[in-house]
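User: Can you write out an input/output pair for a complex, sequences first and structure second?

Assistant: Here is one pair. Inputs:
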Amino acid sequence: MPVRIMKPQEVARYSIDKKPLFILDVRNEDAFTDWKIEGESIEYLNIPYFDLLDGVDDIKGKLPKDRDILVVCAKEGSSQMIAEMLSEEGIKVSYLEGGMKAWSEYLELVKVGTLKSGGELYQFVRLGKGCLSYMVIDAGKAAVIDATRMTDVFFNFAKEKGVTIEHVFDTHLHADHISGGRVIAEATGANYYLPSQDAEEVVFDYHKLADGLCITVGETSIEAVFSPGHTSGSTSFVVDEAYLLTGDILFIDSIGRPDLAGMADDWVGDLRTTLYNRYQQLSEDLLVLPAHFMEMKEVNVDGSVAMKLSTLFSENHGLQVEDENEFRTLVTENLPPQPNAYQEIRKTNMGVLTPDDETQREMEIGPNRCAVR
Amino acid sequence: MKVDHFLDATGLSCPMPIVKTRNAMKDINSGEILEVKTTDKGAKADLTAWTKSGGHELLEQTEIDNVLTFFIRKG
């Protein structure tokens, strides 16, 4: 029986459309526990490939007959070997092309909406790592917000749409993934905007974001709203007076963590002010578009990650804490482990470190962990 | 450290470093020490976990110039 190779974009369909899938993850237990392909319709079995070298007899009985089976490993090699062993036993299986490395780099493109002037807003959903990037397109121009390092995706999409990237924004200095902002700006000649409070150690030229700064893309406005708390410079953007890009301040089912630059106690007050004062002054009808999601339940049926601000005011538990001290405790005492290599990632985003592509991939292994629940 | 056997698995990618280590271990006596060199970064966690699950002992592990070296005593 031939082994099928499944591409990341096919896995995305199982994950988003909630199609039944059985994943045999053959990485070691620590790697699996730390980070895996998520989906509400996915069942898992984790057995390291090195425990299957003598044969797959022990697991044959544990594999379902009524759903597709996908073998997954870190880079592909081991999953291919195990998939071939299962196939020789007459079991129909696929393995993931490029392994978790490719899954981490795959971006699902979703159109979020049509803008007033006829432009478009797109969300790039990095399913494997929970990162969200955006492209605003209007009248042949484009702006990119919170780009990932897979910059070809943005270049290719701009080309496909026949638009020129003129502006590149990062809502903050990212600590969980390597920004593609600088690379895109250098390749296109676009302006690269960063909050200056986050960029004190940055070694390249950039444009400073300031509260109220308004940039237009074609006829579409992008307005900066200073919203510190995840970092001291975190800035949100109101696009076309209808969308609120919150960066890592407010997510669908959680709020940002204030500690990735080592300042939890100092910045929790900023976070409180942003969430409980600054955002309250904005229109409740804005559609919130964050820079991350943590769980597949935050992904809408169309694959987008978006929710009305009014809904979040009533449902996001991070916005329901009346008492300021209680909020402080919630935020500073419930911090999850820090993301993999976050210090090196911050330094890379400052331009201080310049790791090669393979090292950048290794640095980004694992989930994003930018939220507190 | 007195090394009894040596395996060069540099340049090989997963799963070959472990497949070769496993084969090499079959041919040596209990208590003997095998030195394995690999350039596959994933081997760091995998060889460590494999050594444990196979009942062997990882005596030492070093990393110099992207070459990972493992000293494993057969259990």
